[in-house]
Amino acid sequence: MNRAAIRYAKAVLSLARDQKAEEAVNNDMKSIVNAIAQSKELHQMLQSPVVRSSEKKAVLSSVFATANSNTTNLIDTLISNKRLALLNDVATSYTHLYDELRGSQLAKVTTAVPLTDELKTKVLAKVKELTGKEAQVENIIDESILGGFILRVGDKQYNASIANKLNKLKREFTLN
């Protein structure tokens, strides 16, 4: 993650906490990340040096019209500092900082098929046992892992996928 993005995110979080608006800003930041991820055009516009700042501001103002004042101030600051290309990284950093502040984290579970509610509950319990923190589960479907799961929490990863086990067996047989 870009250090400048982290600094912007910390500044916004500090301001939002002073105004008791950190949750509202977090919701805005999630919306920004989702909007950029879902719209290739929005992503390209933010990165483009050719598109004028005024045009970028107009687009962002209409897309995030209901955003908290801290969020709109962040966008204005990024525009005036010619750092709008960092918006996605700042938003991502903010959500991570917000989760840390609340003692929560995101557990990404990659499976070949969607998780059932029962399995989701077991994953949450295991994450709490391992890290001592609450977590939200994001389920990523990837049929190439064949079965099992891959759990990623923060910088830790536990790979219990069938594909990984097959690769280990393959390596063992090729070494002998």
Automatic annotation (TrEMBL):
HAMAP family (UniProt xref): ATP_synth_delta_bact
Protein family membership: Belongs to the ATPase delta chain family.
Assigned keywords, A-Z: ATP synthesis, Cell membrane, CF(1), Hydrogen ion transport, Ion transport, Membrane, Transport
Highest taxon in the source lineage: Bacteria
InterPro entries attached to this UniProt entry: ATP_synth_OSCP/delta_N_sf, ATPase_OSCP/dsu
Signal peptide: none
Organism: Winogradskyella wandonensis
Protein name: ATP synthase subunit delta
Entry function: This protein is part of the stalk that links CF(0) to CF(1). It either transmits conformational changes from CF(0) to CF(1) or is implicated in proton conduction. F(1)F(0) ATP synthase produces ATP from ADP in the presence of a proton or sodium gradient. F-type ATPases consist of two structural domains, F(1) containing the extramembraneous catalytic core and F(0) containing the membrane proton channel, linked together by a central stalk and a peripheral stalk. During catalysis, ATP synthesis in the catalytic domain of F(1) is coupled via a rotary mechanism of the central stalk subunits to proton translocation.
UniProt-recorded Gene Ontology molecular function terms: proton-transporting ATP synthase activity, rotational mechanism
Recorded name of the encoding gene: atpH
Cellular location(s): Cell membrane; Membrane
Keyword match Transport: yes
Membrane topology of this protein: Peripheral membrane protein
Any Gene Ontology CC annotation: plasma membrane
